[in-house]
Request: fold
Amino acid sequence: MNNKVILLHSRNEAAFPTPGAELVFFNAPFNSEKLAKIQQAHLWSPPGDKLEELPEMLREMRGLKSLSIGPGSIAPSIMDGLEDGLLPEGIEALSIHLGTGTLVWPSVVLPNLRTLYVDVPVRFDASSFPMLRVLSIYPDKSLKNLKQALASPLEELNLLNVPVGDEIFDILSSSAGGLERLGLLGGTKLKSLNGLEKIFNLEAVWLKNLSSLEDICALSRLGHLKRLDIQYCKKISNIEAINDLAALRELKIVGCGRLGLEKIDAKINSLQKKTIGATT
Reply:
């Protein structure tokens, strides 16, 4: 048995889209010794056959380090029945793709979880993930879940939507961990990065699908910034701010239209790694 498997109901075998994947049927008899050797698993169900609860088989996967749930047909209530011991305590990475709804994490602790991705608003207590370092989250409108998340000693935070303007940086600067990597990956309200410099330890920034973003001059006040990735942000008016990033080593600019990249030609040519594409 491979270290990476797909968990699904046997009735959905023919529907799984990737030929050659190793499939494990959670409704069939299983060998506990083999399950204990699995390190990576993807839980999947096709459209029209929504998965409502986690399979009991997960209890036997004691060596599991990484679990992804969806994309596929997964109910937002998938975690409602979660209890201690159902997810192996050694799990380090959990990715949940629901597409719709809100996920409520029960009072279950994953003591070794370091990476969490949830593509819908999620409510949880930071004490459930004491080792959490990398979080990708969809903030709710009140930002309550984001503020709760910042109680964790995060090193990397990715906001799948930015529901407010530059006041977001006052909130993010309160992080207990001193963020080193930040992704702002969608939203229509953020026009400026003013205040970003309050997160002074940042070494990497990702800006993507920010349809109103115009002013990025705050980037020039990040003395430790080594990696910058800008995608599909077409209204930026002062791209020349990148010239002032003394520590920059890697730059990606993709799908941003006419930003006046000739203003940073010398900077681009000086970098160790750069990707410039679809900018016209």
Observations:
- Residues 92 and 113 are 4 Å apart (CA to CA).
- Residues 133-280 form a domain with the Leucine-rich repeat, LRR (right-handed beta-alpha superhelix) fold (CATH 3.80.10.10).
- The mean pLDDT is 94.
- The two ends are 48 Å apart (CA to CA).
